[in-house]
Amino acid sequence: MRRITILLAGLIAVVALLVVGCGEDEMTDQPEQEEEQLQPVVARQQSAGEQSQRAQQSDQGDSVGAVDEQEEQQQPAQQPSDQAEVEQVQQDESETGQAAEGQAQQAQQEQAVGDDDRVVLGGDRPATLLMPTGADRSEPRPLIVLLHGYGSRSSEADAYFQFSQWVDQRGFGLLLPNGTIDQFTVRHWNATDECCDIFGAEIDDVSYIKSLIDEARTHAEFDHVFAVGHSNGGFMAYRLACEDVPGLRAIVSLAGGAHSDAADCRVPKPLSVLQIHGTEDTSVLYQGGQLPMHPDADRQPVPGAKESVLRWAERADCEIEAVQKLAPINTDTAVAGDETTIWRISQGCAEGVVVELWTIEGGGHVPLVWDTQFTTGILDWLASVYSGELAAGDVSGTGIEERTIGEERTAQLMLPADRGDSPIPLVVSLHGYQGEAEAHDWYFGLSERIPEYNFALITPQGIADTRGYNFWNATDACCNFYGSDVDDYGWLSGLVAEAQEKVDVSGVYVVGYSNGGFMAYRLACDGLDGLVAIVSLAGSSFGDLDRCADATPVSVLQIHGTDDLNIPYAGTLVGEYDSQGGYPGAVALTQRWGERASCDVNLIAVLPDIDLELTIDGAETSVQRIRQGCADGVTIELWTIYGGDHFPLFQDDWPDHLLNWLFNESRTN
Known about the structure:
Helices cover about 30% and strands about 20% of the residues. The chain has 18 helices and 24 strands. The chain has a 20-stranded mixed β-sheet, with helices on both faces.
């Protein structure tokens, strides 16, 4: 059984709130308190091996941009965890102090540089350039510019992203610049109007970074530039994408965002973009909106993660409907399993552009990335952009294309990327009352099987009723409880027709849970074009027998638990005929649809029991089949889950049972 495990990090954003809420006197006393608060956070974030590795790097001077031992004791270098929503405040008393710190940092870095593969750039505002050991400087290679978050610094960003550990093996250059310190004594980038030049210092960070890139090119041949940033650094990466930065080919933003106003992007040339964002981020909201902890009450809303990437897809003239859903990966140890979904847009994009969104389901502002695919995943993506392997048409045979269909009310159509030229089945999967399309797809698990079974899938969502619950206007019994006039039959029929224009369809199949099961029967009763079979899990149909009297025979699989208290296995009919809102039970449903197909409903074949339910021991599900005499090869089946309730917890092979019945058992012709 696939489960979504969402771990909501619970600690308060200590330093971020102090930055916004504390006065100057309070800030004076902050360093010792902050150190005491942050050290336990670091300890929880890092494994013992990680701590040991970093300690060795610090002792040997191997950490890029590392400071000396005394400074490490005063300000423990760390990348703040999402459990605290913290970006460490650097302590400094004035602009004079900032300049002095810059000079001290430069001296420290120069002292740490022991060979030609590590160079300090930038003069009074130093940055570190790291190159592969012993590499041919005349050989073209990419340059990664790593941009820290608000209140952080370059060494912390590198300790978090761990890029320096891969420089020799991957062969790229790594540039580690630092932002300037504001009146909150917090290091920042002057990125977009929304983040994070809070006091209007208007430091020209674009020119600064461009000058560093130019200087880096005097030491080695860097043919392409990639900007990677977290939070404020992610905003800065989007800012660089909107400026004339020679050689900039792609950006990666973790928990950052684009300009509030798309028109503020000064030079919006085609560019590859990877946005990584947690759905539970409370600092830069995944869905977009004002930055919650920003002190300016009149601040503009930041576009959401999806909107940010879609802008760049549009700028590259990509076919936005041709979205591929790739296999999920693990990027956050705070969330169980492979929690990060990947959506890629590459079809039709100019100049080989690729746009991707990695959504960390349940992830916060600072994902716990160690011992995950986070670092290698980003580096693999950048390497593929560099080589052009992600360009349109290269789908590797395992991807899923996703297209948006419908007009004002849309739905997602998923297709196998390598579907060939032959017609394929089209499945419409319908959620239950109060459900959502994405959660229902997780429950049924059908999209995961698209490449294997080679079918198309529509995952529509009902509209919300007056209580805010999504529903289908299916039958008089379920579940239009507030008298809506929404025409779900018409809308779903339109989606199927549009899908048939985009892909050659061999037949239409509808599966539904609870209210979605009622809707599946409604579609069968009203004659959905091309319908071959329906599957209803814990659903039912009209109580009025005559309501579906003219229905075309279709194959039916009714799956129902005997202990279902929401939609009882026996139904709620008063007698065999009920026009007052009752509905037939599981056995009556199979009898009705068998009779409509002229089957001999008294000839019932009993097949071997199967094990569908995870929490019930043994093969708890009986299988009864009606097939003799049925018109058009129709098959009617009843799967009874003995002891099963309204929400069965299925075994992992549940989707295989379902799809095998649809495509191989539902029709004999």
